[in-house]
Design a protein that fits this description.
By secondary structure, this protein is mainly α. The protein contains eleven helices and no strands.
Length: about 280
């Protein structure tokens, strides 16, 4: 993997973890997540439309962007619900980490990507690290098990939209894909599923600066990953971007005062080590 791709992914992971952390520590994580989706889609839309008009039109690429948006509906809705009660250092690693196991398998078997032995070893190490980081919440019947199960569902949506996005950006511009998928992903939960329109309007009026901040973070972070998908293998980029789980866990421990456990420390070490092998 080229140095440019590695740098792009690492910068994106920090920004991505930052908006996740900011939403998690807020009073309205579910609502802000939906507003972030709509806001970031609107911010990126003018640039996305420019590329859509100026570049070669692709019906299938546009269709894939819409399909990605429909998958993002489930992603944003489920992640918002998970953040309402679950710990950031549990929900985020499980949600992001599920894709580490599934995306490379699909990328290799379905898309036909080539991945070296060292990178496969790194992917396995990252996956083990995330399992360790999740700890007993995956296997023991506690209050946190529901959080873990919901986080796994989020991870399945991440896997689906990651593969769809990889295919989409090979046909249309990444910023166009992002603007469409993000907007649809937030608009449908607000207008059709939740339908507390006045509540969302009040939140925009009272917290417009915060909403703009998290929306800008999302607008910067994910298009960088989409460009990385376009220039490299999704089987490598997707696992490497899970270094964001380390950022999220550290922020959760330091600022949200979440419990520091042996599992979290060992898990973080494994994820960083795995990322190193993937980047070789």
């Amino acid at each position: 993997m080229s140095t440019v791709i590695i740098v792009i992914v690492l910068i994106s992971t920090f920004i991505h973890a930052l908006w996740n952390f900011s939403i998690k520590k807020s009073k309205y994580p579910f609502e802000f997540l939906q507003l972030l989706a709509v806001g970031s889609g609107l911010i990126a839309f003018p640039v996305g439309i420019y590329f859509f008009i100026s570049e070669k039109f692709s019906f299938y690429g546009t269709l894939l962007a819409i399909i990605s948006g429909l998958i993002h509906v489930f992603y944003f809705y489920a992640l918002g619900k998970a953040y309402e009660k679950g710990e950031l250092s549990i929900v985020y690693p499980i949600a992001r980490g599920t894709a580490v196991a599934l995306v490379p398998i699909i990328g290799i078997l379905v898309i036909g990507e080539k991945v070296g032995f060292t990178s496969i070893f790194g992917i396995i190490i990252v996956f083990i690290g995330i399992i360790v980081l999740a700890g007993k919440s995956l296997f023991v019947i506690t209050n946190k098990k529901n959080d873990a199960i919901l986080a796994i569902f989020v991870g399945l949506t991440i896997t689906c939209y990651t593969i769809i996005d990889k295919l989409a950006v090979s046909l249309v511009n990444p910023i166009f894909v992002f603007s469409i998928s993000s907007f649809i992903g937030g608009f449908i939960p607000i207008m059709i599923i939740d339908r507390r329109i006045n509540h969302f309007k009040n939140l925009i009026r009272l917290h417009y600066k915060f909403i703009f901040f998290i929306s800008m973070c999302s607008t910067l972070a994910y298009p960088m990953i989409l460009y990385a998908y376009k220039m490299s293998s999704v089987s490598l980029v997707a696992p490497l971007r899970e270094i964001a789980t380390v950022h999220a866990s550290i922020l959760g421990i330091i600022i949200l005062k979440e419990i520091v456990s042996k599992n979290k420390i060992i898990g973080i070490i494994f994820i960083i080590s795995g990322a190193f092998f993937i980047a070789l």
